Amino acid sequence: MAYYNFHSLFTFSIIIISTFFITINGGFSEETIPMKRMEKMSHLHFYFHDILSGKNPSAVLIARAKNSTGVGFGNTMMIDDSLTEGPEADSKLVGRAQGLYALASRHDVGMLMVMNFEFIEGKYNGSVLSIMGRNPVLNPVREMPIVGGSGLFRFARGYALAHTLSFDIKTGDAIVEYNVFVLHY
Ligand SMILES: *[C@@H]1O[C@H](CO)[C@@H](O)[C@H](O)[C@H]1NC(C)=O
Ligand SMILES: *[C@@H]1O[C@H](CO)[C@@H](O)[C@H](O)[C@H]1NC(C)=O
């Protein structure tokens, strides 16, 4: 107990000293000792609608390689895809996936995904998760890293599991189920 009190006092002194130090320096940069807080794990489940067909597609081709291989190496799409609670197109909207994906592999249908999941539902409204990863779309389940976030998801890290529910070979439209596991404060 005595040791604990001494330790707390010591930590408290460091904070006071560093605060004082920051005050006299000000300006460009400062370092603080973060308070210990519990990290939370959130599991989010939703469906991603990648719609290339129709008058109002949510995914558009923005670049195509001059002499692409059979796997479409180089083709790049910009997306603003709906994220919904259920798999149906008219299911409740919970967010949007904005960013791009590109065929980044010469050997398989391996995509580079660079996107932000912007949520609009409940306490997550306005919070964002950033994803950057490799998506070999023909695999039944693909794992992509969550590299950061904002709002409720500040300091986020984790992973997303993507599983294609349906794919229309004629139009390219796809519905993908996402399970996201994220650590944040
Ligand atoms: C495209 O690739 C084919 C086969 O590899 C080649 O014969 C052709 O010259 C290439 N065309 C261009 C424009 O590079
Ligand atoms: C989310 O936030 C926006 C802007 O702050 C607000 O207009 C909207 O009504 C909110 N949506 C929900 C579902 O709370």
From TrEMBL:
GO terms for biological process: phenylpropanoid biosynthetic process. GO terms for cellular component: apoplast. Gene3D superfamilies: Allene oxide cyclase-like. Its main location: secreted. The chain crosses the membrane at residues 6-28. Homodimer. This is Dirigent protein. It comes from Tetracentron sinense (Spur-leaf).
